[in-house]
Specification:
The structure is a single chain. The chain is of the alpha/beta class. The protein folds into two domains: 2-170 and 354-371, Glycogen Phosphorylase B (Rossmann fold, 3-Layer(aba) Sandwich), CATH 3.40.50; 173-353, Rossmann fold (3-Layer(aba) Sandwich), CATH 3.40.50. Helices cover 43% and strands 17% of the residues. The chain is built from 17 helices and 13 strands. It has helices at residues 15-26, 44-50, 66-78, 89-101, 122-134, 147-155, 173-176, 183-189, 210-215, 217-223, 238-247, 263-266, 284-291, 302-305, 322-334, 336-349, 355-371; strands spanning 2-7, 32-38, 54-57, 83-87, 106-110, 141-144, 164-166, 196-201, 227-232, 254-258, 272-275, 296-299, 315-317. The chain has a seven-stranded parallel beta sheet, sandwiched between helices. Helix 1 crosses helix 17 (355-371) and helix 3 crosses helix 4 (89-101). The protein is globular, with a radius of gyration of 21 Å.
Amino acid sequence: MVRILELIDSGFIGGGQIHILLLSKYLRKNHFDISIASTSSGPFKLLVEKEGLNFIDVYLKRIFSCKSLYNLESVIKERNIEIVHSHGTVAGIYAKILKKRNPHLKLLHSIHGFHYLYSRNFLKKIFVKSFERILVKFPDFYILPTDYEISLGLKNKVIIGNRTYKIPYGIELEKFSSIKPDPIIARNLGIKKDSFVIGNISRFDIQKNQELLIEILPEIIENIPEVQLLLVGEGKLLEKCKKLATKMGVLDKVIFAGTRIDLKKIFPLINIFVFPSKWEGLSLTLMESMAAGNCIVASNIPSNRELIQDNQNGLLFDINNKIDLINKIIELYNKPKLRESLSSNAKRDAEKFDVKQMAAQIEKLYLSILKK
C-alpha cells in the first residue's frame, strides 16, 4: 500500500480542489492509501469527508511560514507518507522546501495554471517566479494539463522538461451526460418559462471576467428581448458585478445564483454557455459544460483552444473584442441548428476526458516515482 498525501492550500471549491477529489476517488484503493491535506476553513473539507476520504487539517500560510512547514513535516512523519502530490503554487513551494529538507521523500507537483504570471503586482510576479526557479529541481515529476501551460513553464524556467508530463483533467462523464432540464430548479432560480438563458459558472474573480457579460447585456437584450443571464458562483468581485448590473440597468435580467452543489442540474438550463476567462489552466467547468452538451462560446485563449475548436464543438471569440462576442451570441440565437450541431460535437469530444483514464495515468507516475 502506497501512502500518498494530496496537498493544496485553499479550502474553497475550485478546479484544483475538484481535481484532487476526483483523483482520490478513482485511484485504486487496494494500491494507494490517500490522505487529502488542506485548511479546514472552507467547504472543501466537508466535500472530502462526504466522499468518505481522509482529510487532514493543514494550514499553509500564503506568505511562507516556518510554523506551517513544521506542521506539514510532522504530518508527513506521523503518517509515514511516501509521496507528496502538491497542487498549486503555495502548496508547491512548501512541498519543495519539504523535499529539500527530506530528500528521501518523493514529490510530484501539479500546476493548475501560472496565475502569478498574470498578477498586476509586478513585485509579486518577480518574487514568486524567482522563488519557483530556485526550487525548480526538487520535484521528481511535474504534471500540467495543457501543451500551452508546459510551454509557459519552460519559457519561465519554473519546470524541468524531462520531468514534465501532460495529463489533462478528468471528469465524471456520466454525471453530466443525461440530465434533463428541471422546471422546478428553473422556477426557483427565477428563470422564466420562455427565457433564452446565457450562463456562466465561475468564481467571481478578475480572471473569470463576468463583468464582460454584464457589460454586453444591454446590446444582447436589444436583439434577444427574452434573454436572462445566469451567473453561478461566489467570489470577491460578486458585489462589484451586482453594482455594475444596477448601473447598466440590467439587474432584472441577471440571476446571481450563488454557489450551487447541483451543477449537473444547472447546465441543462443554459441555452448558451459563455466562458470569457482572461486566462486559464484547463477549465473543469468548461469540460463539464461540454459533457452536458451545452452550446459553448469561449474566449480565444490558448488553454480554451485545447478544448474548443472554433465552429466545430463551439465558438471562440476575441477576448479584446466585445462586438465579436455579441455577434456570436446573436448568431447562435438565430441559428438553432448550429447550436444543436455544436452541442452534439462538444458532448462527443468530452468523452476523451474520462476521470478513470486520468487516474490511471497518474497511478503510473506514482509507481514510477517510487522506482526512481
